[in-house]
Amino acid sequence: MYKNLAASLRVALCCTLAAACFSSPALSQSPAPIKAAWVYVTPLTDAGWTHQHDQGRRAVEQALGARVHTSYVENVPEGADAERVIRDLAAQGSQIIFTPSFGYMEPTLKVAREFPHVKFESITGYKRAPNVATANARYYEGRYLAGIAAGRMTQSGLAGYVAGFPIPEVLQGINAFTLGLRSVNPKAEVKVIWLNEWFNPPREREAAMTLMNQGADVLAFHTGSTAVMAAAEERGKLAVAYHSDMRAIAPTAQLTAVTHLWGDYATRRVKAVQDGSWHSTDLWGGVKEGMIRVDAFGPKVPPSVQREVLARQQDIVAGRLHPFAGPITDNTGRPQLAKGQTLSDAQILQMNWLVEGVGTRLPN
């Protein structure tokens, strides 16, 4: 009897200890999810720059599930407002904050000094710190390819370009587009209208209309909305979608799309915070790295043109084609690059001139 009682007590004790072990918070609770936040310079719409970064945020959620909690703040102007929002997100416990706008660079750096344990991803910025990484994409590669398509499709020989600010990134795009255009249509020209803002749909539309009134039958743009695409659709012209596929807005006008893909990069960076391997890096990826892609041709584009553009895209991947290969002359007649040479990354990043074929001078 006592032996049975002792055995029963031992069993009960073991069960109690086992239950206590399995109910211990240290063993039953999963690690807290990483808090990742994004700051968007424009409203979140169905296409465009902000849309593509939000697609990146969604890709992080899909990849990491319950291991991540994401948030975002949209339509945040560059400058003091951006600094306030970034600081609030850091103070609220965000462990990694993505700030995808060139004008967010300085506010990001300032807040990063106040929160040394928070990681920051300055997208399109170029200044780093121990807790600030920088990343950008070689948009110019996609622009060159879109220029080839435009050169094959234009009938007037004039392409229009609606541009935000004359910063190197925008100049790279205009120049690469023009070089691609003239690689297949040497007499074609590009006319630019500068807006000096990223997002203003009425002004973007007005600029597009002006360019078409001046004879442009193909449009490109470096602004934040879909207004240029909608204007081209309305007028029966062609336009190159930027940031994302915009056939929903311009089903017949879309020539092709220069698509930005941020999901893989954002997922890798959040995972790095999670496993403790995050460090400040500088990435400039393009077609080869899967960060830029030209696709989503519209119904007016013949298969032969599509095949040509996709073949040139593979040439870029393989290193057989560099958009900025000499000889290159700027639109003031000054030689910028000799035959047989290519621009270095440093030269591309500091670009402050427009190529021959751009009929608009660079603003002061």
> In percent, how helical is the residue content?
40-55%
The proportion of residues in beta strands is: 15-25%
CATH superfamily of the largest domain: Response regulator
Helix and strand composition category = alpha/beta
Spatial strand order of the main sheet: 2-1-3-4-5-11
CATH topology of the largest domain: Rossmann fold
Low-confidence stretches: 1-28
Largest sheet: 6 strands, parallel
Globally, the shape reads: globular
Number of helices: 12
At CATH level 2, the architecture of the largest domain is: 3-Layer(aba) Sandwich
Mean pLDDT: 92
Alpha carbon gap, first and last residue: 101 Å
β-strand number: 14
Order of helix and strand elements from N to C terminus: HHEHEHEHEEHEHEHEHEEHEEHEEH
Give a written overview of the molecule.
- The protein is an alpha/beta fold.
- The protein has two domains: 34-138 and 262-285, Rossmann fold, CATH 3.40.50; 139-259 and 291-349, Rossmann fold (3-Layer(aba) Sandwich).
- Helix content is 41%, strand content 20%.
- It has twelve helices and 14 strands.
- The strands form three sheets. A six-stranded parallel beta sheet has the order 2-1-3-4-5-11, sandwiched between helices. A six-stranded mixed beta sheet has the order 7-6-8-9-10-12, sandwiched between helices.
- α3 packs across α10 (263-275).
- The protein is globular and about 65 Å long.
- The protein starts with a helix and ends in a 15-residue tail after the last helix.
